[in-house]
Amino acid sequence: MTLASLAAFGGALFILFFTPGPGNAAMVARTIDAGPVHGWLYGSGIITGDIVWLTVAVTGLAALAERAGPYVWIGKAIGVAILLWMAWGSLRSGLWPKPPVPVTSGLKRSAGYGATYLAGVAMPLTNPKAILFYLAFLPAFFDLSTVRMGDYAVMVTMMLALYALTTAVHVTLAERARDWLVAKGVKSRADLATAFVMASVAVWLAIS
After folding, report:
1. Does residue 39 contact residue 116 with C-beta atoms inside 8 Å?
2. The model's pTM
3. Which segments within 46-193 are labelled E, that is strand?
4. What is the pLDDT of residues 104-147, one digit of tens each?
5. Are 153 and 55 in contact, with CB atoms under 8 Å apart?
6. What do you get for the CA distance between the two ends of the chain, in Å?
7. In the Cβ-directed half-sphere of 152, how many Cα atoms lie within 13 Å?
8. CA 36, CA 26: separation in Å to the nearest integer?
9. pLDDT-derived band of residue 190, with 50, 70 and 90 as boundaries?
10. Taking Cα atoms as reference points, which of 5, 4, 3 lies closest to residue 143?
11. Residue 108 in 3-state DSSP?
12. I need a labelling partner for 99 at 20 to 30 A (CA). Which of 68, 131, 141, 198 fits?
């Protein structure tokens, strides 16, 4: 793999990661709803799923992945269920607001960490955009059969670095918006908007 092909891979990743889509929208909504830790966990789940598809493409398991296609609905159903559960939580928070949770209440804050991460993982694993990019676009872009372990490690490192940047931008902006919403006393309306976004992403995931 040449430096030119790696540079082209990085450029394609930049477009894939920063292009507005349901994954970034859900990450922003999750940050506004539950805080930056959840935003980072959702982003970590997304990049985990992306690395899975890259590994499938590089190791030549695309044919096996196609055979497993009929069972993708299982992961999709899990992702949709988690997103709807998050949407319901935001809806309840918007309709029946409660006093803020104290910072010292770590147990309550960490209650949904696992669900947030799994929802992030489910997004690219069942997202046709991610599947098309890694299984169809990349093989046409350069010869994946020539990728060695060192090349693979560099590709994964590039993915982690670029998606860390993507997550940092979205989570930071969403956190600032969250602080502003709390200060202005309109958090309940933001929760309702968050519920709508999460439910919309769930519907998109279900029908895509």
Report:
1. no
2. 0.70
3. none
4. 334 334 448 888 898 888 888 877 778 778 877 777 667 777 77
5. no
6. 33
7. 16
8. 13
9. low
10. 5
11. helix
12. 198
Give yes or no for a contact between 31 and 168, defined as CB atoms under 8 angstroms apart: no
Structure token digits, residue 52? 């899975």
Structure tokens at 107: 């147990």
Distance, CA of 191 to CA of 197 (rounded, Å):
10
Q: What is the pLDDT of residues 8-40, one digit of tens each?
A: 888 888 888 887 788 888 888 888 888 899 999
- Which residue, among 75, 104, 66, has the nearest Cα to 205 in the 3D structure? 75
Say how far apart CA 161 and CA 96 lie, in whole Å.
Answer: 39
What single-letter DSSP state applies at residue 104?
A: T
Give the separation between CA 83 and CA 126, rounded to whole angstroms: 13
Q: Please give the residue that has the higher pLDDT: either 21 or 78.
A: 21
Contact 78, 118 (CB under 8 A): yes
Q: Locate 62 and state its tokens.
A: 């695309």
**What's the pLDDT tens digit per position in 142-165?**
777 777 888 889 999 999 999 999
CA distance 57 to 93: 42
Rounded CA separation 205/84 (Å): 11
